[in-house]
Amino acid sequence: MSVIGFGAMTLAPGIYADVTEDQAAATLAAAVDAGVTFIDTADIYGDGHSERLIGRVLAGRRDEIVLATKFGGNQDERGVLVRGLGRPGHVRTALEASLTRLGTDHVDLYYLHRLDPTTPIEDTVGALAEQVAAGKIGHIGLSEVSARTLRRAHAVHPITAVQTEYSLFSRDPEDEILAACAELGVGFVAYSPLGRGLIGGAVRSAADFGGADWRRGNPRFQGGNLGRNVSLADAVATLADQYGVTSAQLALAWLLRRGAFPIPGTRRVANVRANAAAADLDLPDAVFERLEILVPRGAVAGAQADETYMANIDR
Questions:
Q1: 65-112 pLDDT tens trace
Q2: CATH architecture type of domain 6-196+250-281
Q3: What stretches of 36-190 show up as alpha helix (H) in DSSP?
Q4: Of 112, 139, 142, 192, which residue is 20 to 30 A from 122 by alpha carbon distance?
Q5: What pTM was computed for the model?
Q6: Helices in the chain by DSSP H: which ranges?
Q7: SS3 246
């Protein structure tokens, strides 16, 4: 698979800014045309909209891509994770629904989106392993789990990938999970690798958000925190410009050096092509050393997300 993937959450309505069906389809096709073969989605993105779009747009190109989707991330109206979604019965039901929307008989990588606190991870992974044996799943993944949970899961069936938010602006994976993945031979997939639009320069002020934009409630995008973080992003952009690359490309190259597989999302064809080109950059060590000085761990203002969101994450 390509070392830089495509995160298809941005192609679903009601999460960030609005996106038209034609715009989403063009961006998705452009990603594959640019050599991006790893496409990542989930059943909750637009209540299945992202999966249906992928199934329609890439119907004739299924063999060109490594297709990943997720289940078990549904939340109630308060943003609290729905309980019981890791139960074996739900694993089978959710998988069949995703396969139907995607228009395929198998997914290459199937993630548990969030750990179900009411179901032992061993039971969930056991049910996923049955679907591997049935040929409906190629590999098993977990999202936002602790190193402890990963080890328990891996003892039942090999886990191929762990997906966690990781970027210059979100460094928590450096505490434990990156080392655990390296120890077990598990791939690490970095979602929101551009700081949810901060690093790439898409966000300059609260005026850049649409009415339904999820980031309005994120501490990093509020008040003085936003101004501080935009200043950090400007410093990254200045450094990137000195080397003839975009700040997004520099941030993605930083992740690649750390052994992560970033999956940036975008609604724009030009951005998806530029992001894909980051895989071929050959930058000197000095640029990354300078980057660490400009944006040291802990420099970002504001929590990664609000308390309700963080409560859904296994730590």
A1: 999 999 999 999 999 999 999 999 999 999 999 999 999 999 999 999
A2: Alpha-Beta Barrel (3.20)
A3: 49-57, 88-102, 121-133, 147-156, 177-184
A4: 192
A5: 0.95
A6: 21-33, 49-57, 88-102, 121-133, 147-156, 177-184, 223-242, 247-257, 269-277, 285-294, 307-311
A7: coil
Question: Does residue 243 carry a catalytic annotation?
Answer: no
Condensed to tens digits (0 to 9), the pLDDT of residues 136-162 reads 999 999 999 999 999 999 999 999 999
What is the CA angle 258-263-268, rounded to 5? 130
Catalytic residue among 16, 45, 110, 111: 45
By C-alpha distance, which of 154, 202, 198, 200 is closest to 180?
A: 154
CA torsion sign for 15, 18, 24, 27 is negative
How far apart CA 281 and CA 193 sit, in angstroms, is 17
How many whole angstroms separate alpha carbon 37 and alpha carbon 74? 27
Domain ranges of the chain: 6-196+250-281
- The CA distances from residue 287 to 243, 262, 268, 271, 281, in Å, are 8, 19, 27, 22, 12
Q: Which tokens is 29 given? A: 């096709």
Per the DSSP assignment, residues forming a β-bridge with 165 are 191
